[in-house]
């Protein structure tokens, strides 16, 4: 019996490990991504069948995370070849020859040595990029994270489910906590990319348990799930309990508690009102103040409440949204409010903060180091849909449910701030940054994904080529262009760069701008669109350029050797930084029956001082929402508004591009 038990146990473990190994092999197959739509190979059809058999009908959220393959290390030769191809349209003849010489010298000498060390890391690390990317791109930065790193998400464009601020806060908080419950119970569907499982584990787990701590470097701190949220209103901080004896409060009960905060007449304590500016200014200053004044006593206890809270809520005293006599201008002010607010009424170190405005509009501000935008977008889509379609409101705009009047009042947080000098200094730094950034948000309604797909063109490639044309018209040339792509087909995958400015895209833009014949422009466009799609596929499947070069650079720094090639590559500015916000849960939004419930997506600040930040979201079949940012301090990137303009978002160029491509269907 003992032998039978041991044998059966070993057999069971062997079968489990064999199935997991087979699934990992299947998930390492990526040729399907390079096949044209409607032309699926027999190999891919067999692969899909086997994948469905092994993955099960209803996998849980984290069921197959350990079966995802590790991110492969590209060869030096391939990476350098793709890099030189990407910079060729940006460099003059002598400049390109010089860069080619640097690349060849690097490949023949230092490159292979660094590659060997990188492959050694890839053998034992879950992902050879992610930990270094998190540390060196986010955590070691000592500049302000407000605007420079944090990003924002917006409410519905046309509707506000209720104008009652406390009620909107009640439903929003409830929806977020219901999402957390689903994550903890693994009730959410695993994120899939065309039926292929993708990585969600680390970032989904970090949503509620992570905060940024400013020390010698920034540190990501992880806590247990908490049963309260931190609330800021009119210069005062509160702890709001959202559970009682293990029971999640009803939306109406949370509304009642929020209303108590709104009705509280007490003034801010000395130094309390603008305390949040410490998280908006320079990180070194915040680190020093934290060590000096927040390591013990009442300040430490209150800071712990904020940092351990599930998330941060700001009850804003302003009205926001597309409203009034100047809807376009108000939409821009709404974006700036979410991006930086007053520089002291947000807690920028929290994994994410919710802002609920006086007129019921809401939005969020998210810290970037712990996760990428698709994770937060997934959370926000669920929140908006649950708020509007599941929880709902009464006819007079209040939350549904009963109220337990015996609930304890929200707790004021206490502070002992001996001097406001450092708070004022941090606020001055943050205010200067906030005043410099310019934001423009607008929905493009002339056409959308539906019409683009009829041309058999990728909507993302169409928009990226349009942005190349817009930049060329704006600046008279081309620039290094960053488009964020996900590497979630691999374990702990984060992002990779798609270099959207290619030889093919430049040929198309020059031809169109030069007035060449229509058929020739159409051919160049399709060639450029296909090239962009191929670059995107390469990035998603681990054959990108920039993360590999970044890791080689980190290895060189560890070894104490200098590479002129790597140093120059990593110092090149991204003057056009772009990102698409994907709609991942379309089933939650019935846009045919509720077309007014259109998401605005979100945006971010410019990466380069003399560049643009462009975010866009493709909504339904007939709309594309754009968010563009730049800095006032650069006269060349001013975002003009009005009918006659020649800036980057001269969006009639989309129509021009379309007319130059669209022939008989």
Number of beta strands: 20
Our count of helices gives 20
Percentage of residues in helical conformation: 40-55%
Distance between the termini: 73 Å
- Tell me the β content: 5-15%
Sheet having the most strands: 8 strands, mixed
Secondary-structure-based class equals: alpha+beta
pLDDT averaged residue by residue: 88
Shape: globular
Across the major sheet, the strand order is 13-7-6-10-11-12-1-18
List segments where confidence is low: pLDDT < 50 over at least 5 consecutive residues: 194-199, 643-665
| Rg (CA only) | 26 Å
Keywords: Acyltransferase, Transferase
InterPro entries: Carn_acyl_trans, CAT-like_dom_sf, Cho/carn_acyl_trans, Cho/carn_acyl_trans_2
Protein name: Carnitine palmitoyltransferase 1A2b
Pfam families: Carn_acyltransf
Q: What report would you give on this structure?
A:
- The protein has 20 helices and 20 strands.
- It has 665 residues and is an alpha+beta fold.
- Helix 11 links the parallel strand 10 and strand 11.
- Helix 4 crosses helix 18, helix 6 packs across helix 12 and helix 15 packs across helix 16.
- The N and C termini lie far apart (73 Å).
- This is Carnitine palmitoyltransferase 1A2b.
- InterPro entries: Carn_acyl_trans, CAT-like_dom_sf, Cho/carn_acyl_trans, Cho/carn_acyl_trans_2.
């Amino acid at each position: 019996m003992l032998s039978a038990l041991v044998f059966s146990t070993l057999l069971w473990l062997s079968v489990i490990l064999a199935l997991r190994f087979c699934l990992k092999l299947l998930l390492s197959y990526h040729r399907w991504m390079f096949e044209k739509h409607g032309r699926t190979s027999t190999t891919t059809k067999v692969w899909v069948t086997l994948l469905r058999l092994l993955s099960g009908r209803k996998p849980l959220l984290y069921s197959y995370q350990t079966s995802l393959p590790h991110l492969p290390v590209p060869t030096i030769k391939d990476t350098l070849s793709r890099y030189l191809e990407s910079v060729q349209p940006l460099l003059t003849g002598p400049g390109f020859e010089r860069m080619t010489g640097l690349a060849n010298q690097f490949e023949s000498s230092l490159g292979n040595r660094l590659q060997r060390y990188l492959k050694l890391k890839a053998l034992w690390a879950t992902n050879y990029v992610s930990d270094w990317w998190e540390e060196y791109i986010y955590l070691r930065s000592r500049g302000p994270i407000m605007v420079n790193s944090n990003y924002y998400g917006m409410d519905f464009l046309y509707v506000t489910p209720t104008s009652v601020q406390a009620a909107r806060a009640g439903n929003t908080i409830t929806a977020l906590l219901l999402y957390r419950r689903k994550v903890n119970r693994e009730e959410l569907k695993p994120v899939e990319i065309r039926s292929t499982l993708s990585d969600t584990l680390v970032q989904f787990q970090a949503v509620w348990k992570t905060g940024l701590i400013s020390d010698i470097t920034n540190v990501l701190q992880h806590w247990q799930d908490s049963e309260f949220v931190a609330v800021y209103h009119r210069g005062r901080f509160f702890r709001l309990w959202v559970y009682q004896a293990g029971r999640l409060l009803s939306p109406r009960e949370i509304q009642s508690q929020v209303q108590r905060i709104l009705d509280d007449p007490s003034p801010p304590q000395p130094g309390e009102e603008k305390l949040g500016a410490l998280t908006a200014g320079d990180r070194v200053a915040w680190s020093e103040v934290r060590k000096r004044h927040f390591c013990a006593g009442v300040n430490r206890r209150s800071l712990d409440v904020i940092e351990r809270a599930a998330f941060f809520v700001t009850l804003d005293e302003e009205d926001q949204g597309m409203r009034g006599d100047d809807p376009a201008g108000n939409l821009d002010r709404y974006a700036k409010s979410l991006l930086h607010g007053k520089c002291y009424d947000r807690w920028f170190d929290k994994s994410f903060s919710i802002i609920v405005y006086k007129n019921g509009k809401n939005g969020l501000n998210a810290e970037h180091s712990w996760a990428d935008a698709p994770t937060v977008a997934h959370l926000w889509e669920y929140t908006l849909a649950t708020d509007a379609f599941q929880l709902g409101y009464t006819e007079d705009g209040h939350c549904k449910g009963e109220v337990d009047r015996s609930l304890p009042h929200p707790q004021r947080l206490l502070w002992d701030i001996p001097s406001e000098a450092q708070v004022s200094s941090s606020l001055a730094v943050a205010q200067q940054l906030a005043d410099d950034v310019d934001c423009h948000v607008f929905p493009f309604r002339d056409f959308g994904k539906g019409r683009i797909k009829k041309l058999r063109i990728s909507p993302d490639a169409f928009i990226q080529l349009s942005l190349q044309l817009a930049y060329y018209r704006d600046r008279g040339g081309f620039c290094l262009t960053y488009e964020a792509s996900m590497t979630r087909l691999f374990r702990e995958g984060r992002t990779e760069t798609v270099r959207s400015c290619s030889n093919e895209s430049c040929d198309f833009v020059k031809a169109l701008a030069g007035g060449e014949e229509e058929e020739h422009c159409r051919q160049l466009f399709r060639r450029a669109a296909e090239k962009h799609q191929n670059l995107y596929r390469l990035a998603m499947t681990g054959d990108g350029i920039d993360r590999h070069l970044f890791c080689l650079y980190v290895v060189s720094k560890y070894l104490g050797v200098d590479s002129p090639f790597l140093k120059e590559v990593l110092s090149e500015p991204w003057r056009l930084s772009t990102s698409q916000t994907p709609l991942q849960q379309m089933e939650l939004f019935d846009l045919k029956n509720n077309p007014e419930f259109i998401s605005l997506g979100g945006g971010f600040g410019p990466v380069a001082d003399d560049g643009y930040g462009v975010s866009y979201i493709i909504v339904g079949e007939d709309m594309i929402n754009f968010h563009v940012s730049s800095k006032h301090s650069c006269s060349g990137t001013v975002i003009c508004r009005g009918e006659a303009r020649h800036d980057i978002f001269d969006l009639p160029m989309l129509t021009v591009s379309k007319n130059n491509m669209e022939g008989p269907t």
